[in-house]
Amino acid sequence: MHRRNFGRLLAAAAFAFASATAMVSTPVLAQEGKTIVGGFDVGPGGFPGNFNPLTATAGFTWLNTYFEPLVIYTSDLSKLEGALASDFAVSEDSLSYTFKLVDTKWHDGEPFTSADVKFTLEFAKNADSGSIFAARLADIASIETPDEHTAVVKLSKPNSAFLSVLSQVMMLPEHALSKIDIKEAAKSPWWSTKPVGTGPFKFVKYVSDQYVEMAAYDGYRGGKPKVDRLINRYFANAAAAVSALSAGEIQFTFAEPDDAKTFKGKDDFRIIEGDSYVVNYIGFNHKAGIWNDLRVRQAVMHAIDRNAIISSLFGGAAKLANCGYVVPRLVPNGLDDYAYDPQKAKELLDEAGWDDINGDKAIPWLTYYNTPQVANVMAAIQAMLAQVGINVVPRALDVPSYNGIVRSEKWQEFPLVYAGLQNGPNPASLNIGLNAAQIPPAGNNIMRVEMPQLTDALNTAMAETDPAKADAKWQQVCKEMNAELPWSPMWVASRYGVVSSKLKDFFWTPAPAGGPFVSHPEKWDIAP
């Protein structure tokens, strides 16, 4: 598509996104001692209410300052190492995982023991708790606690993603949560009023829609944190967060690419850029009925000039995706690249009988992204789809509202979404969004994809614990995705953070879902 025509389409299809939240950016009152303030949560603006790690789909950069998992990814996301597990071992048959636990205490002084591990995993495996990990932990057959510092988890079948999943399962205190009815746990005020973790910071208070305050935990096994307070601010939008950073009110925030560039060359700031490890996709709700014909899904792909969008709206800072990931070792040769071809898209729609299937009826198109860049991307796609006869109407929601709809039975409200799903560092993260066994409430297959060959390919890859053989199995998953289009893969974009030069020993990487990863919050410091 010519740049001039692309610009006309974008201008013609401009639309107003509804305000995501009523977040207030009221300055946080000054604290005694050293305080670091930032936008540490899900992304620009943040996600107020993201306090329960078992229901969180992102925000683990922040959650990991006070909760901790058994294992965690290294800072470069290359491998897993122990966190609350000082050591761990996997049996030869890949069915038994033995965790040796660190000697530490909860923030309220109670000891952390293997009983907490057993409680957490059973709690997270139970869908009644509202946990998004229920299906991912379904292979757990039993959990044994031979002593207070040893937990043995036994699986019913090999699961190559098990340790990766555990890196996001934050350990929880049995003595505090066992008193709460499991069916009421997800909505319990405990998470936002008196949560108890083992991390370097302990919870102080949450001021609704404004900020969360944490205090240094003197008893942290890694040593008392260098700062006294850690505050996570929430903002109405990305621009407000960037303005606060420029004004010196905060010391870190996620940033949109255009916003990040404005800090280039400024000595007072450092720009962090990296792969988001998230593939953005246009998701077809397979229960909606209008996407059942593969030719319709193929038409959507051919109607979108992805290269023009990457060039014009991402500034080239994105990689084209033709399945669920872009890591070269996992992408086989011979994939269909679904080149931009609006004429072919029209022909495919005619062959499928689109006029009878849906015609020009408006199709609600939901997203939880509330940024100017995504607004422009969706406007461009809206215009391109309109050219071939598909009428979509974008609608941006705040994250809780979006999750509430797509995880419910309200098919008519979300026939189409624009979303993102982790594509690394472990490709098994795709399983939660595409395997038929992961349909809500059990898992996060929100598009209700039920494709037997794809599910078989995923199950085969998930069961392969030999790294030397695993890549070929994941390449087969990629082939199935590319051929059957359970959803339309778009791209994997770069992600940005901007840090004040006042922060010392601060580490952040654009990990999927915010990690968690080894970042040592106890070592973060701030200059006067």
Automatic annotation (TrEMBL):
Keyword Signal recorded: yes
Family: Belongs to the bacterial solute-binding protein 5 family.
Signal peptide limits: 1-30
Organism: Sinorhizobium terangae
Name of the protein in question: Peptide ABC transporter substrate-binding protein
Ranges that cross the membrane: none
Biological processes per GO annotation: peptide transport
Domain (Solute-binding protein family) ranges: 79-427
Subcellular location as annotated: Periplasm
Entry GO MF terms: peptide transmembrane transporter activity
Domain of life: Bacteria
InterPro entries associated with the record: Peptide/Ni-bd, SBP_5, SBP_5_dom
Entry keyword annotation includes Signal: yes
Entry keyword set: Signal, Transport
Gene Ontology CC: ATP-binding cassette (ABC) transporter complex; outer membrane-bounded periplasmic space
